[in-house]
């Protein structure tokens, strides 16, 4: 059996120092808030070769900045600091997603980078960022140097919600959000995604109402440890609709959505699909009510 002892911990202060560590360590374990890492069943004992890189001292990763075209959120910004610093500038859908994390202790620990890079399961941040067309700056360590690329958050995962970035070591440095958001934004979480992943659902939706037409519709749904659902076909179908949508059509579209969900993701339960259908249907009814009032 492999000997166990405390892992070696590195604490770089800049991205330059981080790149030196990537040079020296073959598979560094990046540590952000630690909530996912500490909750894993294999957290203790560490293998003796484990080398942890704590990102907590890199100030560059803790910044939030805004230009007239976008907001950049550093990977080490925590849920609670983003909620307090970004109250006036963040889209409501992201504030709802941040607010859905109930425990104050985890809110203070969970970082945006850790949520987006959690390897197995999509939760509040990724679900909301997917409909905001957010981009992630990923620096991959390739042939002895970092190469940076902007990747849309909704392309980072497979249909189960697992991170697709492969085996090459990488660091997510920031998330970029454009400033054009739909005037109808909703985020819904039902049940606790950690304690009851078998029944929990997370749904995000945004759209723009252009007089009586619905445009720029975005929709995502996550089922912890089971599925991450996007449907460009549904978004295109909805983006052509006139408001109000006839109640029969609302009903048909919502059942088609649930059918497509079950077809694409065998792992989710009928109960989760029906829950998602009802939430989705309520968004369309709400849009109708707002149009008529
Ligand atoms: C008790 C508990 C309650 C929770 N409640 C909620 C909830 O209500 N809602 C919700 O959405 N989520 C919840 N979570 C899940 C939480 O969002 C994830 O655990 C998330 O990954 C935590 O981020 P972190 O900063 O703690 O990441 P860490 O645990 O430090 O890291 C997560 C993973 O990402 C990698 N990583 C971290 N930062 C980077 C980076 N910058 N670049 C590359 N890789 C990186 C790490 O190596 C690791 O693999 C909860 C978790 C726990 C344990």
Provide key terms for this protein.
293 residues; alpha+beta; Uridine Diphospho-n-acetylenolpyruvylglucosamine Reductase, domain 3; Enolase-like, domain 1; 3 domains; five-stranded antiparallel β-sheet; four-stranded antiparallel β-sheet; 10 helices; 12 strands; 33% helix; 26% strand; globular; binds flavin-adenine dinucleotide
* Structural class based on helices, strands and sheet pairing: alpha+beta
Strand content of the residues, in percent? Answer: 25-35%
Specify the helix fraction band: 25-40%
The gross shape turns out to be globular
If strands are numbered along the chain, what order do they take across the biggest sheet?
4-5-8-6-7
Distance between the termini: 69 Å
Describe what you observe in this structure.
This protein is α+β, with helices and mostly antiparallel strands and 293 residues long. The chain has three domains: 8-57; 61-178, Uridine Diphospho-n-acetylenolpyruvylglucosamine Reductase, domain 3, CATH 3.30.465; 184-292, Enolase-like, domain 1 (2-Layer Sandwich). The protein has ten helices and twelve strands. It has helices at 15-24, 35-39, 79-85, 92-99, 104-109, 112-117, 124-131, 232-238, 247-264, 270-292, and strands at residues 8-10, 29-31, 51-54, 64-66, 70-74, 135-142, 145-152, 170-178, 184-190, 201-210, 213-223, 227-230. The strands form three sheets. Strands 4-5-8-6-7 form a five-stranded antiparallel sheet. Helix 9 packs antiparallel against helix 10. The protein is globular and about 65 Å long. The structure holds flavin-adenine dinucleotide. Residues 29-37, 39, 55, 75, 101-102, 106, 109-111, 113-115, 117-119, 123-125, 170-172, 193-194 line the site of flavin-adenine dinucleotide (FAD). Flavin-adenine dinucleotide binds next to strand 2, helix 2, helix 5, helix 6 and helix 7.
């Amino acid at each position: 059996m492999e000997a166990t002892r405390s892992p070696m911990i590195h604490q770089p202060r800049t991205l330059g120092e981080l790149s030196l560590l990537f040079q020296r360590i073959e598979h560094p374990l990046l540590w952000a808030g630690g909530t996912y890492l500490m909750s894993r069943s294999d957290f203790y004992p560490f293998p003796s070769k484990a080398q942890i890189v704590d990102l907590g001292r890199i100030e560059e990763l803790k910044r939030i900045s805004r230009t007239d075209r976008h907001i950049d959120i550093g990977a080490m910004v925590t849920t609670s600091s983003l909620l307090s610093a970004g109250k006036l500038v963040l889209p409501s859908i992201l504030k709802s997603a941040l607010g859905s994390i109930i425990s104050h202790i985890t809110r203070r620990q969970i970082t945006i980078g850790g949520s987006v890079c959690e390897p197995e399961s999509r939760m509040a941040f990724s679900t909301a960022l997917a409909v905001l067309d957010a981009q992630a700056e990923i620096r991959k360590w390739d042939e002895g140097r970092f190469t940076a690329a902007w990747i849309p958050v909704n392309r980072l995962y497979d249909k189960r919600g697992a991170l697709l970035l492969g085996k090459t070591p990488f660091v997510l440095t920031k998330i970029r959000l454009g400033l054009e958001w739909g005037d109808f934004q909703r985020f819904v979480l039902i049940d606790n995604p950690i304690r009851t992943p078998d029944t929990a659902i997370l749904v995000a939706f945004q759209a723009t109402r252009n007089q009586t037409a619905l445009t720029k519709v975005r929709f995502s749904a996550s089922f912890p440890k089971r599925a991450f659902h996007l449907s460009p076909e549904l978004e295109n179908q909805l983006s052509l609709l006139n408001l109000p949508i006839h109640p029969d059509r609302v009903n048909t579209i919502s059942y088609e959505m649930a059918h497509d969900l079950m077809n694409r993701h065998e792992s989710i339960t009928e109960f989760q699909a029906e829950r998602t259908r009802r939430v989705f249907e309520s968004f369309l009814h709400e849009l109708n009510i707002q149009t008529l009032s």
